[in-house]
User: Which sequence fits this backbone?
């Protein structure tokens, strides 16, 4: 059973439901004047969209499936992405 659980966790993938565009992200961040929000938006503009962010975020969050994905974990991963 342990091997099966390990295999399933290692081969699970995370995806996001629905469409999200750069404009949608701008709307979510429009009232957020923090350095984090500005840095993320700048990174997305440089990347010409959100596709790379979503792929990177899903890949990084996969590591947290065993311990849990919280608001803080997602925020930390977005911050790491925007700083890369």
Assistant:
């Amino acid at each position: 059973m342990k091997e099966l659980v390990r295999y399933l966790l290692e081969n699970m993938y995370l995806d996001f439901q629905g469409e999200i565009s750069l404009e949608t992200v701008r709307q979510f961040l429009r009232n957020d004047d923090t350095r984090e929000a500005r840095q993320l938006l700048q990174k997305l503009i440089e990347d010409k969209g959100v596709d790379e962010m979503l792929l990177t975020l899903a890949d990084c969050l996969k590591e947290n499936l065993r311990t849990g994905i919280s608001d803080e974990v997602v925020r930390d991963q977005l911050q790491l992405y925007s700083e890369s």
Remarks:
- The helical segments are 2-11, 22-29, 35-46, 51-62, 71-83.
- The radius of gyration is 15 Å.
- The first helix runs from residue 2 to 11.
